[in-house]
From TrEMBL:
Region (Disordered): 1-46
Bias (Polar residues) ranges: 30-39
Species this chain originates from: Haloarcula hispanica
Protein name as annotated: SWIM zinc finger family protein
Amino acid sequence: MSLRSQWQPSDDLPQQIGGPPTLSMPEDWTLSTPWQRAQTESDRGGAVNDAERIVYLSDGDEMHRCLWALQGRTLVADCDCEGHKYNGGWCAHLASLWWQWVRGGIVVSHLDTGRQYPAPPAWLQLDDDPTDYDHLTPAELDAYLTCELGSVGVREYARLSGRSPGTIGNLLADAREKTGGRP
């Protein structure tokens, strides 16, 4: 079952869902103030649900609610702070979530497949459209991301997922046909 059918946005933040259409790493990310704060301050917040987190940085005086999840082949991220708009998407709160994720401090959920990722997957593209793979079923998308775009073979994925290699092969064939063979 897909998280998409289970997950419901929080009633108090309807504008948070969806995130920006693209999110890419800023060229000067190690030198900017948001990224310095992300690397030096601790986060006293935590998960609200599979897609949202509270970020409460140690030198800040406010909690911020952030969307932070995978969808399609990309990361959807949004924050309610002014810095998010000012810095072109990367505020200290989102930078902190990225910093925690790449260091194994948080787990990020995929809204379409329900799979959880303790680190950014090899297939992640920050500037991809989150709706590019909406035409795939959750099982097709999971097989496509894991085997076609990731580094897991069909038989290994079949063992990990409890499916037969033939089923995985069929899911991949369907996904390749629906995507027109593009990565």
